[in-house]
Each structure stands twice: as structure tokens, then as C-alpha cells.
Amino acid sequence: MSDEDVKATVRERYGQAALRAAHGSGTSCGSGSCCGAGSDPITSNLYTQAETACLPTEAVLASLGCGNPTALAELHEGEVVLDLGSGGGIDVLLSARRVGPTGKAYGLDMTDEMLALARQNQRKACVANVEFLKGEIEAIPLPDNTVDVIISNCVINLSTDKARVLAEAFRVLKPGGRFAVSDVVIRGEVPLDVRRSMELWVGCIAGALNEQEYHQRLWEAGFEDIRLEPTRVFEFDDAKAFLAGAGLDPEGLAREVGGRVMGAFVRARKPLQPGVNNVR
Fold first, then answer.
1. Quick one: which H or E segment has residue 145?
2. N or C terminus of the chain: which is more exposed, having fewer CB within 10 Å?
């Protein structure tokens, strides 16, 4: 799989997911490629009814994440937030409410269909302190030292150049700014058949870093106070579901995959003094 093949496939699948959501159809991580819609163990049951009650139905249907970063990021009134890979806008809209009218929430996405859906959802939700940007998470279209908090929901694992993503996140954060993302993380190793599957790359798993790699790459980007906190661990039956959806042998591989794939909340901080990251 070349980097361009991966990017083109991700853009196509998530564009299809946006169109389905716009027409009132639910989806799952990887636009249904992991599992059938509604049965995906990675993307299901992430938000409370109280959170989704104030959002357009289309924003909820387009949610393809593996966590709820807005609930864990400890956002404060007046902060500026950037969501990497904002999709249909669910986390941007929730963030905008948390930071209030004196704050702002940016959403960044490379998929035209998702951006159109997100802007439609913003209008329906009547949220003013939001701006959706077109671009790639490897080249964030914002100046240095712009945002207080970076969030993301199961998107960094889709990039083939994660070092660049983390370097860009570090660049646009203000000194002392926070990196607070939900992502799929691997504990240990998974078989090469899983790593080579385009369906499981688009489905949030094949491109995921393991815990040690994630920690090391954040450190190399300049971050400090790095923590990875498991929020969900996908066991044997979950593994069977997403392996079968990808056309792989669910019985044979699930024993090597179950318990090694997890949704995690990844926290880090940009040092107040540039070039110094003393806390690992």
C-alpha cells in the first residue's frame, strides 16, 4: 500500500460515509468496512444522550470515532480548540459549547463531503464560534502557537506520516497547550495480515501505533507529560467482528488480535519553554 493509495482510499470511504449520513443512514469506522453499520465495536456507544440531544442527527450519524475526546479533554471557557479530522463536526460542535462564546473551535478535514456536512450541521445547531478548514492533518493551515487544545477522534491512526502529524500539532499549539486525542492504539504486536489490510487501515486498526511508539513519537515531536489511558480494550469477539468485515480469517487471527487493540485517550503537553521537554 502506497501512502497515496491509503490517502485516496480514506478520502473516498469517508466521503461516502458523509453522503450516507446526510441521507439519514448510520455508518461505522471505515464507512462500514470493519463491520456492518450499527455493529462496529470500535465506534458504538461513545456519547451520552445528553450530549447528542443538542446536535443534528446527521452529526451523530457521521461520527466515526473511537472515543469522546471532548468529555476527557477538560476544555475551559475561552479556549481555542482544533479537531484534527473533524468529519461531520460532532466533536467540534461539542467543543464549541464547552469553550463558550469567548472561545473558538476549529475543525480540519480533507474530505469535501465531510466539510459540507459539518458546515450544514453547524448551521442547524446554530453554533457561531466554529470554523471548518479544508486541509490535511500533516500540514495544518494555521499559524504557529494558535490553539490551546488539540483534539482528534480516531484519525491520527489513518495517517501514513504520524511523525509529521505530531510535529504539526506541536507547532500550532501555544506554549503550555494540550494534546488530548482519542485514538486506536495497539498493545504489543498484531499479525502482518492485519497490518497489510487496506480495509483495516481505513477501519482504524492497521495503521495504529503501539503504546511505546506513540509515546516515543510524541516525545520526539517535543511533547512532555505524555500519558496513554486505555478507554476500551477490544477482546476476542470484537476482533472476530472487525476481522470478518475485512475479509480475514476471524477464528484464526482473533486469538492473536483480541486484547491487543484498544481505544485510548492520549494526553501530552507542549512545554512552556520551547525546546525543553523534561517530563516523560
1. none
2. C
